[in-house]
Structure formats: structure tokens, C-alpha cells
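Summary for the lay section of the report: proteins are chains of building blocks that fold into shapes. Here we show the chain for Protein HflK and then a coded description of the shape we predicted for it.
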Amino acid sequence: MAWNEPGNNGKDRDPWGNNGKNQGPPDLDAMLRKVTSRFGGLFGGGKSGGDVGRFGLSIALVVAVVVWVVSGFYTIREAERGVVLRFGEYSHNVDPGLRWKPTFIDRVIPVDVESVRSLPASGFMLTQDENVVRVEMDVQYRVVNPEQYLFSVTNADESLSQATDSALRYVVGHTRMDDVLTTGREKVRQETWQVVDSIVEPYQMGLQIVDVNFLPARPPEEVKDAFDDAISAQEDEQRFIREAEAYAREVEPKARGSVKRLEQEAEGYKSQIVLKAQGEVARFNELLPQYQAAPELTRERIYLETMEELYQQTNKVVVDMPAGNNSMIYLPLDKLSGKANAVQPARPAGTPAVESTPPSNEGANSTPTPLRGGDRFSSGRN
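The coded shape description reads as follows.
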């Protein structure tokens, strides 16, 4: 049943309170005056009402001021710097600690200036030799100027990402694929870092690049096996080179030592020969006056000394028997020298015995000498 439907025991449900009388909507002006009169009594309508109103207003103002003051306190962490905006315009920076700002007047934006941020960059890129390679790079940076970081560009992080991608594509486009995959990775990293710095510097974005990590590049999957073989061959080449260098480092000092030893031996031999020759000259110079005084005697002595030296170097002795005896005795001194009792050689009946002593290294006495007057050694002279 509707609210204004007749019935209900003669009672209408008129929301305007007309008790069934059709008087139209309520007067809005009358309602406003009624509300105003009520609040006027609260804040000053009459003597007692005015005191109560002023007290309430004071309390409300004090509470509002306290809330406004308390809401202005804020904290900047140790790793952050605060950028203060006054009525939306940059004012100054604040250091870490407990700070206060006038609410609704200043606005503080904290910016982390200590943490190192990471920005990845990757994609398929075309190399100088027209090959496609997938390259991945990670740029690490931090904020050094909060004001420039917030207001120099619309989004400093996005701008750095675009600059990194542009620099990486430029460097890879001027590098051969083999260098990107193997030996030229460090060069690509350094050049990319330099190009990114040159792009970012004019914009003054308040960022500082800390490091650039060039991750391992990969060829397309279709040619991955062939490139793996090529990389393996290059690694073997480097391994053989290192082994050869190690062998050279091992052999070269030995060769230098051998050369030095031969040089020293040659110098020693040279000195020995020179000194020996000088000694011979001095000996003959001392012998010359004696030869001039007694030539025959001197020649005989020199001859005997020479033969003595020759017989000291042989292990065979020939004994010349007396006249009329055609036998010849051979003494094997090389076999007899190590025995305590020398074996007497067989001799014909009636032949006198001959005793011999093994040679020694004591000058002329080392030559075997006959012990019988009738025997003598064959010396080449009669």
C-alpha cells in the first residue's frame, strides 16, 4: 500500500506531517531560519548562550591548532633526503631526522639516496656483421641529487632505461657477433657505460651510474649448437696458448742456465790453456840457460822425462832379454795392478827371474824397474 493511499482507518501517511491535509511541500525558508536560530543560541543567542558559544569556539580553535601542529611532524630516514615543496614550488632539501612542516603549506617528498638501484635491459639486437644476438645488461645506479631526480625529467628511472637501451643497441650494432659472445664482452661493457653517461649527462637527472654488468649474450636457438662449437674451439685455443706459455716459462730459464754454464766452462778452459801455456813458456825459459850450459845432459834428461810420462799412460811393458836369448816377456800390468802377489811369467830354463811392480802415480818411480842386473827395459834406445 502506498504511503498516501486512503484507508488505514482514516489515517494518512503524509511524510510532511499534514495529517491528511493537502498543504504541499514544507517551506524551506522556515526550516533554514529554524536551524539558524538553534545554532545562534549556541554561539551567542542571549547572554548566557553567548558565553557558552565563545567557549566552545575557543575549544574548537585550540583543538584545531593542536591537530595542525601535530600533523606537521615527520621523519626522514638515514638513507633518505627530503625535498620540500612550498605551495607546490621547490623550496629546499632536509637532512635525516625528526622534522616539522606547516601542514597545507609545505609538502615533503623523501628520496632514497643511499641504496643502489638496478635497471635491467635486454633484447634481440643486430650486430655489425648482420647477425642477431640476444643481449642482457644490468645497470646499477643511485640518486645523488634529489631535486634533479624529481623535477629535471618526468620520470628519471624510465629515462635512464631508454638511454641504456639506446646505448646498448648502438654499441652492439658496431661490434661483431664473435666479440659480443666471447672476447669483446668487456669492451662492449665499457663502451656502453660511456655512451649511457654521455646521454644522461645533458638531462641532469641527478643519477650516478655505479656499475654496468654485461650478462652472457646468447645467439638464436636455431644456431646455438654451431656457436657452442665455435666458443669451445676458442676456449681450446686459449688453453693451448696458456700451456705453451707455461712450457716456455719452464724451458727458457733452463736454456739460459745452460748457456751461462757453457760460457763459464769456456772461460775456465780458456784460462786453463792460457795459464798452462804461460807455465810452459816459463819452464822453457828457465830450462834454456841449463841447455846452453850442458846441451847433451839436458837433452838426455828431457828425453827420459818424456818417456817416463809416456810409459805412465800405458798398461803394457816389454822386457828386452839378454843377448842370445830370443824370448820376450809380456807383463799384463792392467791385470796385475790390482793383485797383491804378481804371477811370475813362464821363462826358459836357465833364464834369470824378473820381478816387476805395478805402475803408480808417483813420477818416475811408478815405472817397472828390473831387479836383476842382466835384465833391462826396452826404451827404444840401445
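Put simply, here is one thing we learned. DSSP finds nine helices and eleven strands in the chain.
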